[in-house]
Specification:
It comes from Desulfosporosinus nitroreducens. This is Peptidase. The protein has helices at about 5-15, 45-60, 80-90, 125-140, 150-165, 185-190, 205-215, 240-245, 265-285, and strands spanning about 35-40, 65-70, 95-100, 145-150, 170-175, 195-200, 220-225, 250. The chain has about 300 residues and is of the alpha/beta class. The chain has an eight-stranded parallel beta barrel, surrounded by five helices.
Length: about 300
């Protein structure tokens, strides 16, 4: 047995895939309601746009299971958060609020340099960790218990706080694609420190996605399309296979409407995002009609 074979054997011994899964095995894992997939629309930055999005979804007869704000809780007033929470309850969808501040809104300019960009949206210093926790506590007081996390250390701390009762035990943490994870070992680590869903890098290939699914039980979030700032590629034809090999999966759709991750979406943008969801749903109905979508109101 050569060195690489020994490495693969060890991975297998600790119940991790030996490599990327080119055979694309079908995932038998499901959401608690039995569903294989749910729809998520990211980049909805305020209540007016959120309401336009949900009303447009009704017009298309589309069920949205998640709506994600990406600019950060600190960019919203209490009244705006409360209104978004109210809209989420009215439409029976899960509201995800992004934790901030983060590297791009910190006092350091390093993240804006060619080498510093590798920092992603992570947090610098313990004070930023404290401030991130304060963002979460504030949103919890206003009725939101689902959060977009960019920093692994912050995730670990929030999970410890959840276990200790310092924040509500029903808080859910979604790890952003901007954390830059794309392999089964990273996914396993994130799940072990509290991730309830994991968004791998946007250009992850199907065989890589299949191996990641074998490593974790939590939901995986996949971009079906992307803003121009992260490649602008559209993966609609791959969605049926994404569902089959990676269930339970959140399909993050509508991103191609935006120029960047934190694009300040308009009402018209929201309507365009729902159109993109309808196009993805058409692909599913055409090429994987037997797949199971979670019903409206499925959040946990």
């Amino acid at each position: 047995m050569n060195s690489m074979e020994k490495t693969r054997a060890f991975l297998k011994s600790i119940k991790l895939p030996e490599g990327d899964s080119y055979s694309l095995p079908t995932s038998e894992k499901r959401f608690s309601d039995g569903g294989q997939y749910r729809f998520e629309v990211p980049g909805i930055q305020g209540p007016m746009v959120m309401q336009a999005l949900l009303e447009a979804a009704d017009n298309y007869e589309i069920c949205l299971h998640r709506v994600t704000q990406t600019q950060g809780i600190m960019r919203l007033t209490d009244a705006e958060i409360a209104k978004m929470v109210e809209l989420a309850r009215q439409w029976e969808t899960d509201l995800i609020l992004a934790i901030g501040p983060r590297a791009t809104t910190d006092t350091s300019a390093s993240v804006n340099t060619p080498e510093g960009v590798r920092m992603g949206y992570r947090l610098r210093g313990q004070e930023q960790i404290v401030r991130a926790v304060e963002d979460v506590k504030r949103a919890c007081r206003l009725g939101c218990h689902s959060f977009l996390v960019y920093d692994e250390g912050c995730l670990w701390l929030l999970n410890e706080m959840r276990k200790a009762g310092e924040i509500p035990e029903d808080c859910h943490f979604k790890v952003s694609a901007h954390a830059g994870h794309g392999n089964p070992c990273s996914a396993k680590l994130l799940e072990s420190i509290g991730a309830d869903s994991i968004n791998p890098v946007r250009d992850i290939q199907l065989q890589m996605l299949a191996s990641m699914r074998q490593a974790v039980d939590c939901a995986i979030d996949i971009h079906t399309e992307n803003p121009a700032s992260t490649g602008g590629f559209i993966r609609h034809y791959e969605v049926p296979e994404m569902i089959r090999i990676a269930a339970p999966i959140y399909l993050k759709t509508g991103g191609s409407v935006a120029a960047t991750h934190s694009w300040d979406s308009t009402v018209e943008d929201a309507k365009k995002r729902v159109k993109q969801v309808s196009l993805v749903k058409r692909m599913i109905d055409e090429y994987y009609p037997e797949s199971i979508q979670s019903p409206r109101g499925s959040i946990r």
